Amino acid sequence: MSTQEITPNNDPVFERVALVGAGLIGSSLAWVSRKKGLARHVAVTSRSDATRKRVAELGFADSLHAEAKDAVTDADLVIVCTPVGACGAAAEAIAPYLKPGAIVSDVGSVKMAVVRDMGPHIPEGVHFVPGHPIAGTEHSGPDAGFAELFEGRWCILTPLPGGDPAATAKLRLFWERAGSMIEEMDAEHHDKVLAITSHLPHLIAYTIVSTAVDLEESTKNEVIKFSASGFRDFTRIAASDPVMWRDIFLNNREAVLEMLQRFSEDLSYLQRAIRWGEGDKLQELFTRTRTIRRGIIEAKQA
Amino acid sequence: MSTQEITPNNDPVFERVALVGAGLIGSSLAWVSRKKGLARHVAVTSRSDATRKRVAELGFADSLHAEAKDAVTDADLVIVCTPVGACGAAAEAIAPYLKPGAIVSDVGSVKMAVVRDMGPHIPEGVHFVPGHPIAGTEHSGPDAGFAELFEGRWCILTPLPGGDPAATAKLRLFWERAGSMIEEMDAEHHDKVLAITSHLPHLIAYTIVSTAVDLEESTKNEVIKFSASGFRDFTRIAASDPVMWRDIFLNNREAVLEMLQRFSEDLSYLQRAIRWGEGDKLQELFTRTRTIRRGIIEAKQA
């Protein structure tokens, strides 16, 4: 989708964008903001000396700050790009320095907990519009970022009831020009959908790779050697950032446990069918799962 | 790897190769045999009228037979390319027509059950060398085959104790010239390794996609829409051939149930950590799984 289709011109969407955190998402947002001219100034903040040093070398920030407050001062858009567990503290730290009329968003993979943790800190007159770009790789850190990460990928916004529609519209425009397709829904629904499409798959991938790690050494080497037979896809998922995923599970507990319970029941059903040699049950279940794949191919998400 | 490195010339490895079954593997074997001149004559057999018709249209067989016995007569190599559950009956049907000195193999994803089911039917003077090419796609049937399927992929041979080393060597040469890397191991060990690298991942993928199929309709549509967040990889795996996979689970029951038990215990551990908010346990486990991914990248299987 070219930017020409979305806006009559290529003017920056915001004067100053502040990115709190410079991991995969933060650095990708910086790159795309510069590449597509989404902001006149991209301020990046990281508390880590090593990260700031690397960001300076990579050169994707117009200004670089050890303190988030210095980055967000005068910013029109602030996007908190930390793991979900750090969003609340980040919001508290920047709150006194936010400009009236500024938009504050985030990129967390859970939304109810973000609303709970960040919401109370956002001052009157500042617009809080939580967001979640469904884009990522198994790599993390400032080196992992690239401008094309959001191209053709969904970004879900979960505006709060009673929020300012103009602020949401402006944030939409920013993400659209970053290459995303936008969907709006409420935070609770988001967390339920992501529990099955993302959180449970990651939990299962981490589990099976962990099971393999515990095998005797000789078998483990062969698991690596013959990983192409299915296991490999799981290892890629299970190489994702540990702190980010710890925070996701801790902060979407109810929905994940609910989906996990359903999954475990379904797995027990298959386990029992294998134990008792019930081939008809296996075949029937393996056949019905194909319909979902067809749906994905038709939706061009494959 | 060029064929020149393996053999001094490009002579056919066998005069006549008979392929029993024309699914993804059988048709790919036919294509590669013709492309690389591995056999002077490729005889293909399928009991299905529709499959034979399609094979004739695709044109990858030198001769096409409704009865397996007509294909295997005079064949130097017979490869049974049916689902594992049909291997025993196929061996029984072809046994009386096998040429003395012929090699009989298969491509099944489990090996102990194949030895159990095919072995007793193989006549004296015929060499039985079970095999398993670790190659595939989620597509099946004669249209799915292509000559490059085995390129750079492992093929595991599980020769029987006391078997003829020359027969194994000749089958190795055939697979090497088809593009494969070869590993030999005993059948029991194969089944254990594949249980964790292939069978359990497929079982889990089928399960989670099945869990999603049972969600309410509105959520299911969003699962498809946002599948790129992790779920999509599982749907690809879970689109594999239902009959083939039914037979794998029924025929590698002990090893799959053993790995499934370990997996379930590990999943319960994570489930409990989520429920009780034990972030340190989650992070520690998510960190140690990264080592396996590194091993796979170093082994160039990624």
Description:
- 2 copies of one chain form a homodimer.
- Chain A folds into 2 domains: 3-186, 3-Layer(aba) Sandwich (Rossmann fold); 189-298, Orthogonal Bundle (6-phosphogluconate dehydrogenase C-terminal fold).
- In chain A, 51% of the residues lie in helices and 13% in strands.
- Chain A is globular, with a radius of gyration of 21 Å.
- In chain A, helix 8 (187-213) crosses helix 10 and helix 8 packs across helix 12.
- Chain A has helices at residues 3-6, 24-35, 49-58, 68-72, 87-94, 112-118, 165-177, 187-213, 217-225, 231-237, 242-251, 253-275, 279-288, 290-298; strands at residues 14-20, 39-45, 63-65, 77-80, 103-106, 127-128, 131-133, 154-157, 181-184.
- Chain A has 14 helices and 9 strands.
- Chain A is an alpha/beta fold and 302 residues long.
- The model of chain A is unreliable at 1-8 (pLDDT under 50).
- A 6-stranded parallel β-sheet of chain A has the order 3-2-1-4-5-6, with helices on both faces. A 3-stranded mixed β-sheet of chain A has the order 7-8-9, with helices on one face.
- Chain A starts with a helix and ends with a helix.
- At the A-B interface, helix 8, helix 9, helix 10, helix 11 and helix 12 of A face helix 8, helix 9, helix 10, helix 11 and helix 12 of B.
